[in-house]
Each structure stands twice: as C-alpha cells, then as structure tokens.
C-alpha cells in the first residue's frame, strides 16, 4: 500500500516535490494562495482535508507562515502521523514548532532543502532532524528521496542550512557588489571572468591558505578592504559588503578563526 503524504504549501518547491512524489505515494496538498492545476497529486480545499489520514505531513512554506501552517492541522492529523517542517528558518523557530507539535501529541521532524528544487525535484538532498526523523526519513527514502537523518535534536538541520546560507548568499552579495563597482570602473567583463576563475580554483587547500593568511595579515587586509570601499564610494556605489568584510577582518587579531575540531 502506498504511503499518504500531504503538503502544506504548493509554491515552486512544494509543487515540484509533490508532483514527483506522486509517482511513489498518494499525495494531497493545500495552499490558500495556489490557483494552479495539480500534476499527479490532489489539491484539497483546506488543510484539515489535505492531511486527513496522511502518514506524513510536509510543511513547505515561508518561515513566517510555518507556525500558521502547523496550527491549521493540529487535531486533524492521524494519530501516528509525522509532521515534517521544511521551511528555511532559524533553529529557534524550529524548536518552537516542535514544542507546539509535542503539546498536541504530534510527532515532529524538521528538515532543509540543500539544493535548488526546480533542478532536482524530489531528488533534492534533504537534511533532517528531530524526534520524528526516523519514521519520516524511512518513508521518504523508500519513495526514492535523498534524505540524510542527523538525529533527534531539533534545529540541527536548520543550523546547517543557515551556515551554508551565510557562505552562499554572502558570497553572492559580494559578487553583486564587486560587479557593480567593476561596471562603474569599466571593468565589468574582466571582473566577471576573474570571479569565475577564482571560484573554480576553490578547494580545501585554497580555503586553508585564505584562512591562514588572514590570521597573519589581517591588519594589512583591513587596510586593503578600506581602500576598496573608498573606490566603491568614488564610483557611486555603497560598499556595504566591503565595509562589513573589513569589520570581520578587524576582529581576527582578538578573536582568531575557529578551525574544524576546535569548536566546543
């Protein structure tokens, strides 16, 4: 018998995963703002109707909507159902959701999507943690999804996603800022090509050299970033990321840089 998976949230990610998963499970879904046509799954008229009898309920909403999504199904889920929240949210919010679910006798797990869903669909890697992680992971893995269970501590998956976001989104913001300044300097093409070359070379050795060099030369690098900020301002751009970089580098002599295996 195929498992029943219910989705709360049918945005791009929810729609893509629900559509793919419908080949392996009975899939229902609800989204108050959704007006599209279901592909393989059944769109229901309300949250209670969507989750009725479901083995697994997946909340795939914006973080701000996650508490309301959970609240909308409390008292309507099957006794042995697991609620899996996949919102990109803080560990603190995930723990609040877990406490709410526990207070109503609902098993809870939290997870995060670790790659673009529109490219991979239901094959998108998912990190998952929380008291309901074993059952949720077993169900989704049996359907062919790429799930890595991390254990029973709520917030661990969320923390890993947001640590990745600091790097990926921060790097993106730095690239945007550098390309704007480069365009103003008439060096847009060179800057783009140099970014591609630099990022292509990144590996463990390069990262270690960057960190080691920062420890030894942080004072000089602060001055370098202040000069870069002045250039940006003279080009008519606001060097928000450049100034922030200088402040982080300025903190290195006093705080150092954590290394793998040294954190508490």
TrEMBL record:
Residues 182-252 form the Phosphogluconate dehydrogenase NAD-binding putative C-terminal domain. One of its GO terms (molecular function) is NADP binding. InterPro entries: 6-PGluconate_DH-like_C_sf (IPR008927), 6PGD_dom2 (IPR013328), 6PGDH_NADP-bd (IPR006115), NAD(P)-bd_dom_sf (IPR036291), Pgluconate_DH_NAD-bd_C (IPR015814). Pfam families: DUF1932, NAD_binding_2. It comes from the Bacteria. Residues 5-108 form the 6-phosphogluconate dehydrogenase NADP-binding domain. This is 3-hydroxyisobutyrate dehydrogenase-like beta-hydroxyacid dehydrogenase.
């Amino acid at each position: 018998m195929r498992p029943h998976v219910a989705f709360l949230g049918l945005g791009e990610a929810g729609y893509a995963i629900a559509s793919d998963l419908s080949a392996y499970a009975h899939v229902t879904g609800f989204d108050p703002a959704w007006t599209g046509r279901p592909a393989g799954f059944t769109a229901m008229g309300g949250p209670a109707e969507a989750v009725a009898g479901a083995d697994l309920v997946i909340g795939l909403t914006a973080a701000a909507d996650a508490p309301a999504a959970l609240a909308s199904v409390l008292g309507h889920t099957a006794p042995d159902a697991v609620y899996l929240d996949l919102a990109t949210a803080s560990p603190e919010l995930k723990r609040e959701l877990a406490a709410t679910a526990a207070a109503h006798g609902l098993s809870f797990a939290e997870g995060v999507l670790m790659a673009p869903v529109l490219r991979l669909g239901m094959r998108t890697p998912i990190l998952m943690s929380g008291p309901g992680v074993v059952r949720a992971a077993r169900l989704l893995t049996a359907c062919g999804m790429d799930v890595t269970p991390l254990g029973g501590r709520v917030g661990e998956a969320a923390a890993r996603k947001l640590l990745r976001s600091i790097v990926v989104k921060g790097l993106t913001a730095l690239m945007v800022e550098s390309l704007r300044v480069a365009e103003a300097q008439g060096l847009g093409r060179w800057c783009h090509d140099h970014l591609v070359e630099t990022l292509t070379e990144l590996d463990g050795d390069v990262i270690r050299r960057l960190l080691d060099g920062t420890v030894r030369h942080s004072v000089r690098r602060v001055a370098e970033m202040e000069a870069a900020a002045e250039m940006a301002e003279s080009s008519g751009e606001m060097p928000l990321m450049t100034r922030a970089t200088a402040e982080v580098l300025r903190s290195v002599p006093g705080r150092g840089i954590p290394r793998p295996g040294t954190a508490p």
